[in-house]
Amino acid sequence: MKTKALYPGSFDCFTYGHLDIIKRALKIFDHLIIGVAKNPQKEGLFTVDERKELIRQVLAEETCVEVIIFSCLTVEKAASLKVNAIIRGLRMISDYEHEFQMALMNRSMNSTIETIYLPADEKYLYVSSSLVREICEMGGSVSSYLPPVIEKALLKKIQKKRSVK
Ligand code: ADP
User: Could you tell me the mean pLDDT of each successive run of 10 residues in the chain, 165 residues long?
Assistant: First the structure.
């Protein structure tokens, strides 16, 4: 039987750190569903539809990957998709506390769904979407952290935001 996992996140914007986790997860699972979480309390820079489309473009050649948008609880989505596990990436110690709490809370809501943590590559340990957005907004180069299609979209988005101000 084919195994599948759900990799949920904000992906605002999608970085090489996210891509690295996806590549690792695909060594373990046959199929990976990337779930762009829609959070009504946090609008974000890119809309969820834009994020989904951009991730699809980055992963156009990966036939075992699918990108979806979801707005319910992650465990509910994982159960409805019948995945074997939820995948999360771990960077610094600061990720642990929050991630551990989330995993335990998710398990208390649905004990059949396991969360698997994959450690980040050393190259991307310090890479986060928010930091990359900030650097780009301040005019710094972000090409080492983002796939070209994402970098292009981020620059365009920031220029647009500036012209509206
Ligand atoms: P969320 O708001 O759900 O944390 P993110 O898009 O920030 O959404 O992150 C989604 C997942 O990817 C999280 O598990 C996060 O720890 C992981 N992640 C983010 N950046 C990196 C990175 N540079 N290396 C490895 N994992 C990462």
Answer: 95 97 97 96 93 98 97 96 95 86 94 94 94 95 97 95 79
Q: Which of 91, 98, 99, 100 gets mutated to test ligand 1 (max ligand atoms within 8 A of its CB)?
A: 91
Largest CA distance in the chain: 53
Residue whose tokens read 């995945």: 83
Active site residue 91: yes
Tokens 């990108």 map to which residue? 67
Closest atom of ligand 1 to 87 CA is: 14
Return the pLDDT at 80: 97
- Contact between 5 and 29 under an 8 Å Cβ cutoff? The reply is yes
- Residue 36 forms beta bridges with which residues? 9, 69
Q: Which residues on neighbouring strands pair with residue 85, listed in sequence order?
A: 5, 114
How crowded is residue 109: how many other Cβ atoms within 10 Å of its Cβ? 13
Ligand 1, pocket residues at CB < 6 Å: 9-11, 15, 17-18, 20-21, 88-89, 91, 95, 120, 124, 127-129
What count of other Cβ atoms lies within 10 Å of the Cβ of residue 49?
11
- 148 token code pair: 């070209």
Catalytic pick among 4, 88, 129, 133: 129
**18 carries an active-site annotation:** yes
